[in-house]
Amino acid sequence: MADQNNLNSNEQQHDLNLPKVLIHGPQGFSSVLQPPFSQNFHILNHSSLPLHQFLATHTHHCSSVAALLCDGGYPVTADVLRLLPSLRLVVTASAGTEHVDLDESRRRGVRVAGAGNMFSEDVADLAVALLIDVVMKISAADRCLRKRVPLGSTGFPLASKLAGKKVGIVGLGKIGLEVAQRLEALDCIISYNSRTQKPLVWYPFYSSVVELASNNQVIILCCALNEQTRHVINREVMLALGKGGVIVNVARGALIDEKELLRCLVEGEIGGAGLDVFQNEPLVCQQFFGLDNVVLSPHAGFSTSESYLGICQLVGRNLEAFFSNNTLITPVI
Amino acid sequence: MADQNNLNSNEQQHDLNLPKVLIHGPQGFSSVLQPPFSQNFHILNHSSLPLHQFLATHTHHCSSVAALLCDGGYPVTADVLRLLPSLRLVVTASAGTEHVDLDESRRRGVRVAGAGNMFSEDVADLAVALLIDVVMKISAADRCLRKRVPLGSTGFPLASKLAGKKVGIVGLGKIGLEVAQRLEALDCIISYNSRTQKPLVWYPFYSSVVELASNNQVIILCCALNEQTRHVINREVMLALGKGGVIVNVARGALIDEKELLRCLVEGEIGGAGLDVFQNEPLVCQQFFGLDNVVLSPHAGFSTSESYLGICQLVGRNLEAFFSNNTLITPVI
After folding, report:
1. Which of A102, A244, A308, B174 is disulfide-compatible with B120, CB 3.0–4.6 A?
2. Contact call for residues B267 and B291 (beta carbons, < 8 A)
């Protein structure tokens, strides 16, 4: 009866003809996703066991799992795919798919659906919010007050205006464009760098990031991480950006040489940074915690209540489409 | 020789034919304003003595002071005016003029110039920044991280989207309109309350603040403080705004019944608040310091480096205009 352990009680009474869906993500993820789908799918939840142990001990259940719902950072490796022989669909609730072995999925004929552009607006909002916070020193001033620095003293940092700031965006995909539109509405002056110049975009294009940095006061990272973009923000770029310069990263931590960033922040070689992502996640370099010219965010680009609802609906629409033999809403492969 | 004490050394060598200008403000104020004007004016600085003592002991100098430059919160009372018998102009570097005895100035034929709309954009920027910070929980998340809450844990507050939020503005003067324009560009839906409906404004108008609150998710205070508006945000308004509601105050602390605000924040009757002003300034009620749904700002609506430069230029232009018999740039009386 090992196969019956660690399963939610509701699924044992469930209609066994419904497609079997395994959920692979953090606790909150399961509790959000499970209820809306439990009518149309036979939901399996391994939350009380690590996945590999669950797969090894619940072989009967796993042999008939047709779909896997996963979150970013929850690996779907070749091994996982091998232990789910009936799997036909992986739906990840994340924008990135680097945790899913796409080659092995393709080889096995397993389709993969992602979050599409579901989080683009939230990530763009966060980029703008972090920039405003760094430039206007909102968090730093709030922290000062909570440390009992008296009102009217000279202990508070002097803010700067957002309007008129020259902002260079690295990576002008969906998120980069959303950031550009928001900042243009707030009277910033936009230019960008990307692999190639965009045909239908009138913002000035710089083919090198150093050139982008030396012509702007702010750099916002919205590009993918790959071997070409790893440490794309190095010391040379930071020095080109200059002492008042601000860097905002809502993409991937390893786009920035974080050691150099810390050195430049401490030495005043750049003005400040707003960071939603870090080089060694889930660890955050503790040296950031002592700096007042940094605003830190917990890789939360998509953590609005509206997006939780949205992704939940999107996952449901992908599942329904797949099991009704319709086209996936947001296919990856 | 008492009259020569406590005066800056440069003024003793100064051309005594230049108009004599006394500076009345905090240390930083004098050091910013003094250098640019020292060529065209004979600057007096009482920074090492309280003003009344300076006026009493430097009667010779004070008898020929033609202009007074003051900051907000530095009173220019009837007594001060009496002790400066040659005074013809007061220039205050503040948006408000409540620290200047305007009746007595008028009676003595002393002109008064203010900051005009110099700070309107900064105050509007701050209102937007505080709203974004409260809604997206930027400061709260930053504080969480600095307390070593691990990335990926459920310890972080869930943010909300700014776009689509219904925002009610109380007071649609220059600042209120600037706030409305910025938030419209960020896809918020604007309505307002003011003493009377504005003829050329198409935003929906509510004649009562309770009605405004019950039709919006956010209230932003941009109105003047007077007997009609004192505690305009009371418990009834907060309950009408509701549990997810956010209040932003960049105007005056006493517009809000602060005790009730604290109670509503603690009891979850409203969602959050962004406050640049407080009821008992310079004191800030310490109960705010323990709340995560509040963003606090040190009455800093105009504290950008760009505005310091701007006000400095505006003060200079008012002085030059007055002493060349031209119209004041930003006259109050």
Report:
1. B174
2. no
Chosen for mutation from A128, A136, A178, A296 (greatest number of chain B CBs closer than 10 Å) is A136
CA atoms within a 13 Å half-sphere pointing along the CA-CB vector of A242: 10
HSE at residue B206, side-chain half, CA atoms within 13 A, is: 18
Give the Cα separation of B151 and B241 in Å (integer).
33
Complex ipTM value:
0.85
Q: Which of residues 227-256 of A touch B (CB under 8 A)?
A: none
d(CA B170, CA B195): 9
**Looking at B61, B252, B258, B260, which residue is catalytic?**
B252
Which region, left, alpha or beta, applies to residue B51 given φ > 0 means left and ψ of -120 to 50 means alpha? Answer: alpha
Nearest to A284 by CA among A269, A294, A293: A294
pLDDT in tens, chain A (333 residues): 344 444 544 444 556 789 999 999 877 777 777 777 778 899 888 877 888 899 999 888 899 999 999 988 889 999 999 999 999 999 999 878 889 999 999 999 999 999 988 889 889 999 999 999 999 999 999 999 999 988 877 778 788 999 999 999 999 999 999 999 999 999 999 999 999 999 999 999 999 999 999 999 999 999 999 999 999 999 999 999 999 999 999 999 999 999 999 999 999 999 999 999 999 988 999 999 999 999 999 987 666 888 878 888 899 999 999 999 999 999 999
A218-221 vs A189-193, strand pairing mode: unpaired
Q: Does B26 touch chain A (CB under 8 A)?
A: yes
Sign of CA dihedral B10, B11, B13, B14: positive
Torsion of CA B32, B35, B38, B44, to 10 degrees: 50
A205 forms beta bridges with: A192
Show the DSSP H helices in B137-231 as ranges: 138-146, 174-185, 209-214
Report the distance separating Cα A224 and Cα A43, nearest Å: 33
Distance from C-alpha of A217 to C-alpha of B145, rounded to nearest angstrom: 27
Strand residues in chain B grouped as ranges (E): 20-24, 42-45, 65-70, 89-92, 111-113, 166-170, 189-193, 218-221, 246-249, 272-275, 294-296
Tell me the one-letter amino acid at A223: C
- The whole-model pTM stands at 0.85
